[in-house]
């Protein structure tokens, strides 16, 4: 496997870095402070084609690959984890399952508007009583002849308040357990569908995380995604891909905290020397730099396998587990290196530490990643 | 409408290091970028493309690695890219550079030529104006705004330290542009995806209308006597005082340094 960037990827990196630095970074503190969804940034990303990186050209995308997509999530998250997850949920959790499971009509209807960024995508699996135990779905979908009727609710849905298209899991046959779950494409305006309460969160505070409510929601017959009863498989496969996105987000947060720490430890003087000259600083930063690079190789390996149609479930789980734990460790230590200043909102590491925590939780907790990895190892 | 934009690859740094023996810039380890004023010029051309449907050609003279900024220009929206590269161009000063660029442009069909005001590695601001002279064209330098009029002339605003002038130019001309006036767009993802599958035309000295002895080092009357980085000035002092106190303060400082 070759991890060097192609010339096209180099050009892309140049663009996304400068976009993140000039357009995203200046808003990061404000987006966090005001819990504001950065719609202006999403519009700018849409204009550049960033909302449809891995979508084929025939469906209105840029025709890029997953390497480029994860580079974008990493570079955005390096300066603003909220912006990183908006792109990740939109791409991995909404467009990818339509690309992978949709009928030609569904792809033609949804992908061009999602890839152009005219529409924003989201994904609904988690319920109040179905978190890690996702098979315990209580949202029901009943066949009503020429349409489906959905009842139930979903929680912690990223992008929800601003999304136009949702991939929603619901039980079509409760007696069959996980084999009774099906996936649906739900549009914002469907009758009986509404957005519930917005969560007040520790981190990624600009991402609009809300509840989805289905009260006799009418979903057209043709909006069943994939085969009936295969919804759980679709959800699990979607999360495999999503984990590469979240691993990239975690990697970006870790790299961002490292950037800040390198700068700060070189500037900050105590006992007449920069704190970067102390061996404690040097050894800790050396360990963290090694972990960040190891995380990057794991993430790129998972994306490379996905791009080459190789199995990547375990690779994505390993990438997410390691990158998320690295992000948490890096940001916690970044705050420590900044001392009292690090605990204030004057420096971005405080926000980064709050943002990092979610990467150990959503799209499968670190414990779930360990279950997935062990499951592959011991099967 | 055909617009030609002249661009240059420059080291991305404001802290230029100079080889003490050769007196040339040390480029190793310094990433290269498209010169900011040139990028501003490209942005002006692309805005004209957006508004009037102009066809935008970018041209650069440089070593083969200057291909990178041409790919960037294509990804930003340029229609055609030309790399003027030949050992015969090596060692060119501004006169020989502008002569070679003009020689290439003479073979092309165009309505307008845009260049950056100056490059951050040389800061001469000479290549654009010299090129206009070689081509016998009118020129407006330090451009901050250019609009096409109903009768196909250009209304151009130029700005320097002393004044702002609005000029009307008819027919072909050369504009040199300030980066500060034209916030350049980003490359688009689809532009990036196509950039390396599109053609960058390679032009050598025999492809253009030039006399060989006027090219490169041979054609360069400028001889660099010595190059050295400027010594850093001591940091300034900031005093927030009234006007009267300021006068007294300045006088006392000047006396202190025996200037008055």
Structural write-up:
The complex is a heterodimer of chains A (379) and B (260). Chain A is of the alpha+beta class and 379 residues long. Chain A has 10 helices and 10 strands. In chain A, the strands form 3 sheets. Chain A has a 4-stranded mixed sheet. The longest helix of chain A is centred in the middle third of the chain and has 37 residues, at 231-267. The two termini of chain A are 25 Å apart. The mean pLDDT of chain A is 97. Chain B has 260 residues and is α/β, with parallel strands linked by helices. Chain B has a single domain (2-214), classed as Rossmann fold (3-Layer(aba) Sandwich), CATH 3.40.50. Helix content of chain B is 27%, strand content 22%. Chain B is built from 6 helices and 11 strands. In chain B, a hairpin with a 4-residue loop joins β8 and β9. In chain B, α2 crosses α5 and α3 packs across α4 (127-135). Chain B is globular, with a radius of gyration of 21 Å.
């Amino acid at each position: 496997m070759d991890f060097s960037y192609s010339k096209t990827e180099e050009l892309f990196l140049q663009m996304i870095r400068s976009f993140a630095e000039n357009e995203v970074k200046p808003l990061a503190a404000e987006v966090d402070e005001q819990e504001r969804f950065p719609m202006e940034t999403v519009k700018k990303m849409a204009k550049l084609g960033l909302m449809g990186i891995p979508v084929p050209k025939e469906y209105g995308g840029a025709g890029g690959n997953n390497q480029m997509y994860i580079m974008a999530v990493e570079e955005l998250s390096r300066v603003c984890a909220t912006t990183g997850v908006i792109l990740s949920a939109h791409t991995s959790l909404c467009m990818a399952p339509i690309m992978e499971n949709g009928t030609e009509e569904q792809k033609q209807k949804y992908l061009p508007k999602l890839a152009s960024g005219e529409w924003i995508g989201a994904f609904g699996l988690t319920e109040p009583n179905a978190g890690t135990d996702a098979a315990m779905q209580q949202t029901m979908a009943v066949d009503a002849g020429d349409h489906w009727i959905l009842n139930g609710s979903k929680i912690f849905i990223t992008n929800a308040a601003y999304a136009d298209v949702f991939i929603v899991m619901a039980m079509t046959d409760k007696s069959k357990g996980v084999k009774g779950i099906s996936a649906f494409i739900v549009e914002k305006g469907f009758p009986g569908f509404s957005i519930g309460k917005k969560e007040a969160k520790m981190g990624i505070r600009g991402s609009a995380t809300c509840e989805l409510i289905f009260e006799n929601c009418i979903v057209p017959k043709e909006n069943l995604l994939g085969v009936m009863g295969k919804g759980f498989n679709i959800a699990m496969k979607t999360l495999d891909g999503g984990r590469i996105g979240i691993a990239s987000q975690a990697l970006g947060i870790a790299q961002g905290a490292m950037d800040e720490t390198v700068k700060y430890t070189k500037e900050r003087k105590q006992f007449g020397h920069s704190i970067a000259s102390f061996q404690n600083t040097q050894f800790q930063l050396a360990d963290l730099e090694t972990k960040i690079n190891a995380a990057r190789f794991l993430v790129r390996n998972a994306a490379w396998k996905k791009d080459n149609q190789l199995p990547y479930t375990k690779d994505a789980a390993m990438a997410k587990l390691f990158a998320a734990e690295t992000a948490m460790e890096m940001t916690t230590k970044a705050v420590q290196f900044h001392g009292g200043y690090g605990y204030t909102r004057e420096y971005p590491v405080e926000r980064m530490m709050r943002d990092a925590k979610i990467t150990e939780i959503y799209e499968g907790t670190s414990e779930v990643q360990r279950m997935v990895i062990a499951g592959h190892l011991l099967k | 409408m055909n617009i030609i934009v002249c661009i240059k690859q420059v080291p991305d740094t404001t802290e230029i290091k100079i080889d003490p023996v050769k007196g040339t810039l040390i480029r190793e380890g310094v990433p290269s970028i498209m010169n900011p004023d040139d990028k501003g010029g490209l942005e002006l051309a692309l805005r004209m493309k957006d508004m009037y449907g102009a066809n935008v050609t970018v041209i650069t003279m440089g070593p083969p690695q200057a291909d990178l900024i041409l790919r960037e220009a294509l990804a930003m929206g340029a229609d055609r890219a030309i790399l003027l590269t030949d050992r015969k161009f090596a060692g060119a000063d501004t006169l020989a550079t502008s002569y070679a660029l003009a020689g290439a442009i003479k073979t092309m069909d165009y309505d307008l030529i845009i260049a950056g005001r100056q490059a951050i590695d040389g800061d001469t601001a000479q290549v654009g104006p010299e090129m206009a002279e070689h081509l016998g064209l009118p020129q407006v330098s330090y451009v901050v705004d250019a609009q096409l009029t109903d009768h196909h002339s250009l209304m151009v605003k130029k700005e320097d330290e002393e004044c702002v002038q609005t000029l009307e130019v008819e027919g072909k001309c050369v504009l040199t542009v300030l980066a500060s006036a034209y916030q350049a767009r980003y490359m688009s993802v689809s532009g990036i995806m196509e950039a390396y599958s599109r053609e960058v035309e390679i032009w050598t000295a025999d492809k253009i209308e030039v006399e060989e002895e006027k090219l490169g080092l041979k054609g360069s009357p400028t001889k660099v006597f010595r190059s050295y980085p400027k010594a850093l000035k001591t940091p300034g002092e900031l005093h927030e005082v009234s006007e009267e106190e300021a006068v007294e303060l300045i006088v006392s400082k000047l006396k202190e340094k025996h200037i008055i």
